[in-house]
Design brief:
Oligomer: single chain
Protein name: TIGR02808 family protein
Helix content: over 70%
Keywords: Membrane, Transmembrane, Transmembrane helix
Order of helices and strands: H
């Protein structure tokens, strides 16, 4: 693997981690809000 490929995959890997964490947080927040809005007493 060339130096460029190595740098490319390192950047891709390190940028993917926070995106996955933030996306997971957003999904959990959206599901929580949905469950609370469905289960609340009107």
């Amino acid at each position: 693997m060339s130096t460029f490929e190595s740098i490319f995959w390192h950047i891709l890997g390190y940028s993917a981690m926070p995106i996955i964490i933030l996306f997971g947080y957003a999904v959990v927040a959206a599901v929580s809000v949905f469950i609370l809005s469905v289960s609340k007493d009107v």
